[in-house]
Design goal:
The complex is a heterodimer. Chain A has one domain (27-212): Up-down Bundle (Four Helix Bundle (Hemerythrin (Met), subunit A)), CATH 1.20.120.80. In chain A, 75% of the residues lie in helices and 0% in strands. Chain A has helices at residues 29-58, 68-71, 74-99, 103-133, 142-175, 179-212. Chain B has helices spanning 15-37, 41-49, 54-85, 95-130, 138-157, 185-213, 226-258, 271-305, 312-325, 341-353, 355-369, 378-400, 403-409, 413-443, 449-475, 491-520, 562-572, 593-609, 613-632, 642-662; strands at 585-588, 637-640. Classes of the chains: A mainly alpha, B mainly alpha.
């Protein structure tokens, strides 16, 4: 993997004078997988940014319906946020356990992550169901459309994450800490942390700004 | 049970789609029967359908694009005939059918012809040019291809089951909202693009990772062939732009399915937000298409001029500049919609600025040719034809970038002529150049030059005969998408355009004949050395077609134009390259994951279009289960023993020996 400076090759490379840093060749599978997954996460964040933009455009369009400050319940959002941030920590613990091949701590970390994710989803689902029951569903106004879509898109991602998490636990159970399983655990962890970052955006843009207005 | 689906979905009262659908169905059944009866099915299944080899997947992408080109081309022929006859009359196409045709034409040509064609060429060639054995994620590559095919299948299904959108290829609301388009047409449009969009995103992630992380030893960024650079730029754009399309179509679908108010007229929805979002994807999209074409021209012009590419670094800079600026010009698609003079001025200037790096490229190609030993083989003809055509299209584009001029020409036939001028003259000519240039690499024999040149000249002339009249009609005030018209001054130009369409069609026929003739004469046209054009980059350093592992040894690159350099070096050292010990090679195993996943995606897409909810759940579960089964397998690679590698490699080395002793002597 050494980056060798080889002046001997410089004559074949007319634009370089003197030192040429040679590319060492293809990267390892682990690097390639993680890199590709990062690129996917970036694209996912671009998608979220569209829903953020739509929310910014439509948040004032209440069409005679409720404003954000009238429907947001800060206590619930605080619990949701704590759950998600804690789950990022436990997900990190599970990653470390996987790195040292410790099944017990891996299962424990993943289980706690899963439970925290499910608590988050239940609270969010109840918030949505409550709003719909009060007649403030997504078709009430453009503001509620944008609100349900942005928060719901994040919620769908968390649901997919929980499904993935359970699949990974089953895989470790069946296959152990194989190299490809470890790569998938790494991707899952990246995914879960990225959802946390998106949630910080949702929390700030939707709930904090919305409650103040 | 079957949602909105019943017998009224089949258009029994419309002969044209019904007959067309029947012909296609018979053709498909005939091919399938032939495949089964002749016993080719196991071969097709194990060598192509389940293949994760980037070369095979690339070929299948191009095959899909070619078939869809015929479909989109038929739509074009029907439109040109309609406008030639529909002067003060209804023509032969009723309005609701005509509207479906122009919508389907645009959708098909962009998403299912241009996209798969360039993605296919990138898939086929980029790993070879980088000197590696495969792309970063071979199985995902297969998934991406089959999802694209799913989208194409759904679009074609709309011909006979239900209807296609009548909204134009970008389905602007409020027309595309449920209140104005209650049928399934827009749903066909949106779901087929959502599914194929996932496929495109996968391809984009895959190729970005391949270029950035999988280059052979010594392949520094500034030694990569130009096509790899444009591939990188184009796929960065895919990764950054396609999620916008996904989000926008998801919003439209939420409006239609669940009564949301993103783009409706009621409850505070905002139609202009759709315009902004869709063009924030749509403008980068045209550069996603044309940048790979620029890369192809760079390879072709350099090879057939026998010179290194002029101004390589300025070309790299121009490519990356276009990559960035393409995200800052989207508003020029709706100057007339009231953004105000300041905003219009900024986007007008940005649009003109993007012509500068493009101009740099044109001059670089011209200077590459200057002083070179030019061989006018078919790929070179397409490249020179491109330069002439694209400059015209680029200049009319700069004209349209001037907001006051755009107010006159917006939505006119002038605009139609402009974007066909750049997309046909840029993307399609590039795709054809790449097709002719790399065909021997993919299949091991060259294409017939005589028919290739005929195809070029008919297409080139046919293009101008078709589209120059449309420029003029636009100047005369003709707007686009007219099912009939009453202005006498437009009529002659519509007739000339229809004649041009006939000439273009002859060009397409020539190309089909070219392929048939070349397959028949394939022994005479055989490329034994793997380097039929005296090439410069690494794809020519292996046999044609390349072995499944591409290279027996990952090449060690010492400079730009890696293979040219190797040839020159080999000659200096009187050929005796010391080959190190051959070693076992591990390759990824074939997998039906892509095909099975696309099967479930097709079911799911169809069920979503027709509101068959139990089938949606079934399709979703099936797709998830497919991935779990894939993740559960224990052996994902197989080994090609060193002796086999050595045997394959030595055959090619023998064939190449004479060639190497002659080449590299400039």
């Amino acid at each position: 993997m050494a980056m060798t400076a080889t002046a001997g090759h410089a004559h074949a490379d007319p634009h370089h004078i003197g030192v040429v840093i040679e590319h060492p060749g293809p990267a390892s599978k682990r690097i390639v997988t993680a890199y590709g997954f990062w690129i996917f996460l970036l694209s996912d964040i671009v998608m979220f940014s569209c829903f953020f933009a739509a929310y910014a455009v439509l948040s004032g369009q209440t069409a005679g319906g409720p404003k954000g400050s009238e429907i947001f319940e800060q206590r619930n959002v605080a619990i949701e946020t704590v759950c998600l941030l804690l789950s990022s920590f436990t997900c990190g613990m599970a990653s470390i356990a996987a790195d040292v091949r410790n099944r017990f701590w891996f299962y424990l970390g993943m289980t706690v992550t899963c439970v925290l994710g499910l608590i988050f989803l239940v609270i969010e689902f109840r918030e949505f169901a409550d709003l719909v029951a009060r007649g403030y569903g997504p078709s009430r106004s453009a503001f509620l459309t944008a609100f349900f879509s942005l928060v719901g898109c994040h919620g769908l991602h968390v649901s997919a994450g929980v499904l993935w998490l359970l699949t990974m636990m089953a895989q470790v159970f069946a296959k152990g800490f194989r190299a490809d399983v470890l790569r998938r655990i790494m991707c899952f962890a990246l995914f879960w942390h990225a959802l946390d970052i998106v949630w910080v955006g949702v929390f700030s843009v939707v709930y904090l700004l919305g409650s103040a207005a | 049970m079957l949602g909105k689906l019943d017998w009224s979905a089949i258009p029994f009262d419309q002969p044209i789609p019904l007959i067309a659908g029947a012909v296609v169905l018979v053709a498909i059944l005939a091919v399938l029967t032939w495949v089964v009866v002749k016993g080719h099915l196991p071969y097709l299944w194990s060598e192509w359908i389940t293949s994760v080899d980037h070369k095979r997947i690339g070929v299948m992408y191009i095959l899909l694009a070619s078939v869809m080109l015929l479909r989109g081309g038929s739509d074009a022929i029907m439109m040109r005939i309609q406008q030639a006859v529909a002067y003060q009359s209804q023509g032969y196409l009723p309005p609701e059918h005509y509207n479906q045709i122009f919508s389907a034409h645009g959708t098909i040509m962009i998403f299912f012809v241009a996209m798969p064609f360039v993605i296919g060429l990138m898939n086929l060639i980029v790993p070879l040019q980088l000197g590696v054995r495969d792309v970063a994620f071979p199985t995902l590559n297969s998934v991406g291809f089959w999802l694209t095919a799913t989208g194409a299948l759904l679009v074609n299904l709309s011909l006979v089951v239900g209807e296609f959108a009548r909204t134009g290829w970008l389905a602007f609301p409020p027309l595309s909202e449920l209140s104005y388009s209650p049928g399934v047409g827009v749903d066909y449009y949106a779901w087929s693009l959502q599914i194929s969009g996932v496929g495109t995103l996968v391809a984009g992630i895959n190729l970005v990772t391949t270029v950035l992380k999988l280059r052979t030893k010594g392949m520094n960024y500034l030694r990569m062939p130009m096509f790899c650079w444009t591939t990188l730029a184009s796929n960065l754009l895919i990764v950054a732009a396609f999620p916008i399309l996904t989000a926008t179509l998801a919003m439209l679908l939420l409006d239609r399915y669940l009564g949301f108010h993103f783009f409706t007229n009621e409850a505070g929805g905002n139609v202009m937000m759709f315009m902004n979002l869709i063009w924030a994807w749509g403008h980068p999209e045209v550069y996603i298409l044309v940048l790979p074409a620029f890369g192809i021209f760079s390879e072709v012009v350099s090879t057939f001029s026998g010179k290194a590419l002029f101004g390589y670094r300025s070309m790299v800079l121009a490519t990356m500049a276009i990559c960035v600026i393409s995200f800052m010009v989207w508003l020029h698609h709706f100057f007339t919609m009231g953004a105000g003079p300041d905003v219009n001025a900024i986007f007008g200037i940005a649009s003109m600025i993007i012509a500068i790096p493009t101009g740099v490229k044109i001059y670089n190609w011209l200077f590459t040719m200057y002083g070179g030993r030019i061989r006018f083989a078919t790929p070179m003809l397409w490249s020179v034809g491109f330069m002439v055509t694209f400059i015209v299209g680029g200049l009319t584009g700069v004209l349209l970038a001037v907001p006051p001029a755009d107010f006159m020409l917006h939505n006119s036939m002038f605009l139609v002529a402009h974007f066909h001028n750049v997309i046909i003259g840029g993307v399609l000519f590039g795709a054809f150049a790449g097709f002719e240039y790399w065909f021997p690499k993919a299949f091991g024999f060259r294409l017939d030059e005589r028919w290739g040149k005929l195809a070029f000249w008919f297409t080139f002339l046919g293009f101008f005969i078709t589209f120059v009249p449309l420029y003029i009609a636009g100047m005369l005030g003709m707007t686009r998408r007219m099912q009939h018209y009453d202005v006498a001054a437009w009529r002659p130009w519509m007739i000339v355009a229809a004649i041009g369409m006939a000439v273009l069609t002859i060009g397409v026929i020539c190309q089909i004949v070219q392929i048939v003739v070349s397959i028949r004469n394939r022994e005479a046209l055989r490329d034994r050395t793997g380097d039929p054009w005296d090439g410069r980059s690494l794809e020519w350093a292996t046999s044609s077609p390349p072995p499944v592992f591409n290279f027996a040894f990952n090449p060690d690159v010492r400079g730009e134009d890696a293979y040219w350099d190797m040839k020159a070096r080999a000659q200096q050292q009187s050929l005796e390259r010391d080959r190190p010990e051959y070693q076992d090679i591990e390759m990824p195993r074939n997998s039906p994951t892509g095909f099975v996943c696309a099967f479930f995606a097709t079911i799911m897409g169809f069920a979503l279009i027709w509101h068959i909810w139990w089938m949606v759940i079934l399709g979703g579960l099936g797709a998830w289960a497919t991935f779990v089964v894939f993740a559960w397998r224990d052996h994902d690679e197989y080994v090609i023993p060193a002796e086999e590698v050595a045997a394959i490699d030595r055959v090619n080395l023998e064939e190449r020996r004479d060639l190497v002793s002659m080449a590299g002597t400039v």
